[in-house]
UniProtKB/TrEMBL annotation:
Gene Ontology biological process terms in this record: signal transduction
Bias-annotated ranges (Basic and acidic residues): 54-69, 92-102
Bias kind Polar residues: ranges: 39-50, 119-128
GO cellular component, as recorded: Golgi apparatus
Record keywords, A-Z: Coiled coil, Golgi apparatus
Origin species: Halocaridina rubra (Hawaiian red shrimp)
Family assignment from sequence similarity: Belongs to the GKAP1 family.
Ranges for region Disordered: 14-69, 92-144, 274-294
Protein name: Identical protein binding
Compartmental location: Golgi apparatus
Amino acid sequence: SLAILFQLQELAFGGSKGKNKKKGGGKGSDSNKKDGSPPKSNGQPGSSPTIDDDWQRRDSEFVRDENERTLREALMLSKLDFEEKQTFYAQIKKEQEEEQHKGGKVKKKKEKPVPMSLEQFNNLSLNQKTKKKEPSSNENNEATILENQKFFDNVEEVAKKTLEREQRHENYKATAEQFGKEILVKQYEEQLEKQEFEIQALRLEVDSLKNDLKMVKGRNKKLCEVICSAEMKSKAELVVELDKMSRVRDELTQEVSNLSGQLEQERSKVNQLTLDLKKSHGKKKQTADGNNKE
């Protein structure tokens, strides 16, 4: 009887929990079948956080209601079975008391002692020992019955406490998951802030480099303009110098040509004078010779 009661208690609590866990795994699919719409995953384009939260809430409510209903059914079945066993035990106890009462009356009658064999004596001693043990076992059964009666008197309270304990466990798991998600979100936010800070610093550095590049380009442009202007000036000066030199050359050439003409004139004059001088010498010589002849 004790084993049966323990099995009933296990069915009321342990077995119902196992059933609930098994049922809880397929509640999402059952609820989806009842609603007529397939479950939406986060990877699908039509899913959204609010719809997913709504589905999760519905599934959790359905699972909780099913667990509560299954637990109540198991407890009620256990209570009914216990009441049936209690009436059965009460009937057995009543029959045992009646038998003991009848046996006491029979013993009161005086009978003549009958000689018995050794085997009968041993059987009699064994029967007496078992009869002595029966009251203790009956007392234990009565104690267990009273204890189980107290247990089943507060079925609602036990069921409520069990459901509250499971609910606290589920809430703890949900809060732990939420806390873990919040920690991950916080870490991701810190990483994003760090990356944004680095990006901002790189942007400032790029802007400063752009400004430096503009300044260098401006300086190079001015330098090129200066060099070009210097080259133009040098070229212009060279052209002017060449023009001057060409003019001087022309002037010198003209002067040389003039001097050459004058030199030729002077040479012709010298030649003429030389001829005249020779002629005059020839005449003087002739006259001198003529005079000598005379």
